[in-house]
Design goal:
- The structure is a single chain.
- By secondary structure, the chain is of the alpha/beta class.
- Helix content is about 40%, strand content about 20%.
- The strands form three sheets. It has an eight-stranded mixed β-sheet, sandwiched between helices.
- A hairpin with a 4-residue loop joins strand 12 and strand 13.
């Protein structure tokens, strides 16, 4: 099919009930799976939920499994540029042609479910994409499916599966208008992915979330693998292009692990990913060489990704307070941008003021912009008015176009030889900015520039 045909298919799918609205029922996706012959049961599943870190943890799980010789199918959301990115086989997004083929294969069955009007709703966009992913993985076929929850857990369409391993990254406040206003409410929803007979691999949690997850695991008889007790980051140090880790595996420490991602949160996600893979293997340790090779091959777009130099331009997806704090801690630890110019766009349903306050701790100026691919976002002017209360009017700039916002930020950063740009506040913004920067002329990215902090020097001390 042509690109225009693919765009028409995507537009038709997006025109369904949108994924940021929840139709809380598994009835429609269960009906589709039944009609398709249950592709969700075609391979073992590692399912991942949590507030932040789901996507990067899934990427790392995928990389470790492939390094161990297994064929993987990974489903993630949202996408950065094209919806086909959500469905990866052997670490690569399926082609738009393959996406369209699978859609044509399952479309008659989707229409059959639509006709049933289960709970008064046709299949939603996210339900259809989830079904498409399971069908693509079964057809490939893959050895293991790595499934990232879209939102929540219990009622998420991905939860039509019965995971062998249920992974929960740190839980914090986000999507409160849907999942609940408290950590307790959100934890109850996300705990739903812990199924009878599974192994629950759980990251360190807030005091409110932890007991709820443990209670759910006990209730359904799931085996527990806990950060701090069963796995952990033993040591870490900055390294060129990322960090060097020593991780606790199922059968002892694994050292000299180079992770080409920045930040303490990414180190913890790596430990979580390793524990998840070893849980799938029945609690047996991966060969240390596999661990080293797997993590070395990790690529996580728009996770503090340095996409340009002269001046440095970083992309990140941090969009809630928990994620924003991780973003800014990573910036302080690894990059020395003076001045730091922010390019920020945000969705209207986020905790905008809290995120802006966190950004303002290190951003010297901010260019407020707006995304073009959704109507959920604040306008650039609306965001600028909120930002002025936090940064001060003299530090706030407005550009309704993302490309123009990037150009202005680069100009402001270029005023000093140590200046740089951080693009953050929205996954959608990161995707739109990445698409622009990927097609623009750029210098080759050099990770050992003077504008990066010296390797192996966390808080002024060599760690190990």
């Amino acid at each position: 099919m042509s690109n225009s045909q693919h765009e028409q298919i995507v537009a038709t799918l997006v025109g369904r009930w949108p994924e940021h609205r929840i139709a809380p029922s598994l009835g429609r996706i269960e009906a589709l799976m039944d009609l398709l012959g249950h592709p969700e049961k075609s391979a073992p599943v590692i399912q991942i939920t949590g507030t932040n870190g789901k996507g990067s943890t899934a990427i790392m799980v995928d990389a470790l499994l492939r390094a161990d010789g297994l064929r993987t199918g990974r489903f993630s959301s949202p996408h950065l540029v094209d919806v086909s990115e959500r469905i990866c086989i052997d670490g690569e997004p399926i082609s738009t042609e393959r996406f369209d083929e699978v859609w044509e294969d399952i479309r008659p069955y989707v229409e059959m479910v639509d006709a049933q009007q289960i709970d008064g709703v046709q299949m939603t966009f996210f339900e259809v994409i989830t079904g498409l992913a399971y069908a693509a993985f079964a057809d490939a076929p893959v050895d293991v499916m790595v499934i990232e929850v879209g939102m929540g857990g219990t009622w998420d369409a991905t939860s039509v599966c019965e995971p062998q391993v249920s992974v929960i990254t740190p839980i914090a406040l986000d999507h409160t208008h849907i999942l609940g206003d408290t950590i307790t409410d959100i934890a109850h929803e996300k705990a739903g992915i812990i199924k009878p007979g599974s192994t629950a691999v759980i990251a360190a949690q807030d005091d409110e979330a932890g007991p709820i997850l443990l209670e759910r695991a006990t209730e359904v008889g799931a085996k527990l693998v806990l950060e701090g007790r069963d796995f952990q980051v033993l040591e870490r140090a900055r390294a060129v292009g990322g960090q060097l880790l020593r991780l606790q595996s199922a059968e002892g420490p694994v050292g000299d692990v180079h992770l080409p991602l920045f930040g303490a949160h990414m180190a913890h996600n790596a430990a979580l990913a390793l524990a998840a893979v070893e849980a799938l293997l029945g609690g047996h340790a991966l060969n240390p060489e596999v661990v080293v090779d797997g993590f070395a091959a990790v690529e996580a777009p728009a996770r503090m990704e340095l996409v340009r130099t002269s001046p440095p331009v970083l992309l990140d997806t941090g969009h809630n307070p928990h994620g924003a704090r991780a973003t800014m801690a990573t910036l302080a630890e690894n990059f020395d941008l003076r001045p730091c110019i922010g390019v920020v766009a945000m969705m209207a349903d986020k905790d905008v003021d809290s995120v802006l306050r966190i950004f303002a701790e290190q951003m010297d100026q901010v260019v407020c912009t707006q995304v073009s691919s959704t109507t959920r976002g604040l306008t650039a002017q609306e965001l600028a008015e909120r930002a002025a209360d936090v940064f001060g009017e003299e530090k706030v700039h407005v550009s309704e176009d993302v490309a123009a916002a990037l150009e202005l930020a680069v100009t402001l950063a270029d005023a000093e030889p140590t200046g740089g740009v951080l693009v953050a506040g929205s996954v959608i913004l990161a995707g739109e900015a990445r698409a622009i920067l990927a097609t623009a002329p750029t210098d080759e990215v050099e990770l050992d520039r003077a504008d990066l902090r010296t390797p192996f020097d966390l808080d002024g001390d060599t760690q190990w």
